Amino acid sequence: MKDGIKSSSNDIIFITDADGTYPIEKIPELLNEYKKGFNMVVGARQGKNYDGNFIKKINRKILKFLVEFTAGRKIPDINSGLRVFSKEESQVYFNTLCDTFSFTTSLTLAYLMNNKFVKYIPIEYHKRVGNTKVKLFKDSLRTLQYIVEAILFYNPIKIFIIFSIILIVLSVFSFGFTFLWGLKSTFMIGISCIFLSILMFGIGMIATILKQILHKI
Questions:
Q1: What is the model's pTM?
Q2: Which residues, in sequence order, are bridge partners of residue 123?
């Protein structure tokens, strides 16, 4: 996909999947919105074909939460394959964009974390023609890996905030067990989790400062 974008003779780029799932007749509508001044216009998938099975739903919700937490805004569809954007503008981020299944997710994050204007237009997601090449577990792990890397690259303190919250929740449970059963060991675990959460938050602040310093070099 990167090679195709680089080889394009025009600046306006459309991408879509070749499995019949996206309504390509919506392209003129996306183009009209793009010409209004948006940096990228994305078709936000809807309908029963998009929902998929229970595992896909859970997986999608986890990834959506992480991307929205990173970007700090609601994102209707984090990895839709139907979108229009600028060749010149997108190539600025090619070195940090994922080279595999997560290209669209990484492109979304790159634009949002750099304060670009992204517009979402609802589209009906059709039934796939043929078999998917996506390996749900393997590609989901790759996507999760990239999202974590993107958080560390664009807004590192947020990943440490997640760890801090997890540690605080563990400390609350530990103190609850101590209160109910009078266990000294769980009390010590609770205290340790509180100190670790403070340490984790401090590391996140250092990481943020280092990011700002590196970006100025």
A1: 0.79
A2: 45
Instruction: Give pLDDT tens digits for 181-202.
Output: 888 899 999 999 999 999 999 9
E strand or H helix at 46: strand 40-46
Which residue's structure tokens are 């059963």?
181
CATH architecture of 2-154: Alpha-Beta Complex (3.90)
Tell me the one-letter amino acid at 79. Answer: N
Beta strands in 87-181 (DSSP E): 118-124
Burial environment of residue 83 by CB neighbours within 10 A (0 to 12, 13 to 18, 19 or more): buried
Query: Across-strand partners of 118?
Result: 40
Which tokens belong to 33?
């919105």
Which tokens is 179 given? 């209160």
Euclidean distance between CA atoms 15 and 96, whole angstroms? 19
In this structure, the chain runs to a length of 217
DSSP-derived 3-state class of residue 16: coil
- CB neighbour list of residue 25: distance below 8 Å, 6 or more residues apart: none
On the question of pLDDT at 136 being above 70, the answer is no
**Alpha-carbon distance 148 to 142, whole Å?**
10
The percent of residues in the chain predicted with pLDDT above 70, rounded, is 98
Asked whether the CA dihedral 92, 26, 101, 141 is positive or negative, the reply is positive
